[in-house]
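Re: the 143-residue chain
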Amino acid sequence: MRNRLAAVSLALALGIGGVAVAPGAGAATVHSTPRPVAVAAPGFYAGGTWELYQSNGFTVTLNLTQDGGGHLYGSGYYGGTSGTVEYGAVVDGTSIYFTIGWSNGARGRYTGSLGSDRRLSGLTYDLNNPSSQASWSTTRVFY
């Protein structure tokens, strides 16, 4: 009895002190310590009205809103064609990508990155006609 009481006292003292007591031989131990998940914060703000200059001669004007998670919402237009940013557009770190569904039936996929000059540039293509491609850039500086 005295040995048992001493063992319980030692286990309590070690447990209270923050030292884990090892389980007996043959006992299975499962540790499920929650680990934080790293989520990259948007590295710049792409909201507002800005122009995207395409190598095929088109200038696309975007009117975007960006939420705290980096998701983009909004619209764009060029010439007489208007479009809406489709679900799934995200700004992440120094990359940007989004799809615009245009009123003429085209679906433009835009991917790009933030350069050392804080301007965006990238490539676009029509998801309905992938051979229709152009490079693009901005003159706006993004922070």
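The two ends are 71 Å apart (CA to CA).
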